[in-house]
Design goal:
Layout lengths: L3 E8 L3 E3 L12 H12 L1 E7 H7 L10 H11 L2 E5 L11 E3 L3 H10 L4 E6 L1 H9 L5 E7 L7 E2 L11 E7 L5 E6 L3
Length: 184
């Protein structure tokens, strides 16, 4: 069965966005590019919440962007995309929209043939899938910054979730990459 992998960057104090939704604290280096490009080769499906998809689901880097960023988003365009939304049914780029019975729908997606599934975000979708015990792996890039406030990675989690550390790796940029399995 395919795995759902939550893979994202988080500040040292646990925020995925600043207080106004800003992510200007994220830095993309050649090192980051290698990690992300290796990851994207192992997935063929991406899960988005509505707000996250509206911001990033059809994102196109500018001409001034790095080759890594251009290549990365070119690869993202090739992935099967699902958007979870109760308020909207049509999106640019024509992703598959799921608006009910999330647990059944996700379990069906996981049973399909293919590579792993990236839980891209946002925070509400992460909370929903975590509370339903549908996330199999956590890949967190802990960034060397303290934001002080913003949108927390985890909020309104119903029960304790015991994770097993698979690997921890420090990078020259100061980012620490942590990979955990969650056996539910």
């Amino acid at each position: 069965m395919r795995k759902i992998i939550l893979n994202l960057a988080v500040s040292l104090d646990g925020f995925i966005e600043g207080p106004n939704g800003e992510i200007d604290w994220l830095t993309f280096t050649e090192e980051t590019g290698i990690v992300l490009n290796n990851f994207i080769k192992d997935i063929d499906t991406v899960l988005y919440g509505r707000i996250t998809y509206d911001s990033w689901g059809t994102y196109k880097p500018s001409q001034e962007s790095s080759d890594f960023e251009k290549n990365f988003y070119s690869e993202m365009d090739k992935k099967l995309k699902y958007v979870f939304s109760k308020s909207k049914s049509i999106f640019e780029g024509n992703p598959i929209v799921i608006n009910s019975d999330i647990e059944k729908q996700i379990n069906n997606i996981k049973k399909e043939q293919g590579k792993n599934i990236w839980l891209y975000g946002g925070a509400n979708l992460i909370t929903s899938l975590l509370n339903l015990n549908l996330i199999d792996e956590f890949r967190l890039a802990i960034c060397p910054i303290i934001l002080g406030e913003g949108k927390p990675l985890f909020k309104n989690i119903k029960d304790r979730k015991k994770l097993k550390l698979i690997s921890a790796k420090g990078h020259e940029s100061g980012i620490v990459e942590l990979i955990y399995n969650y056996n539910h």
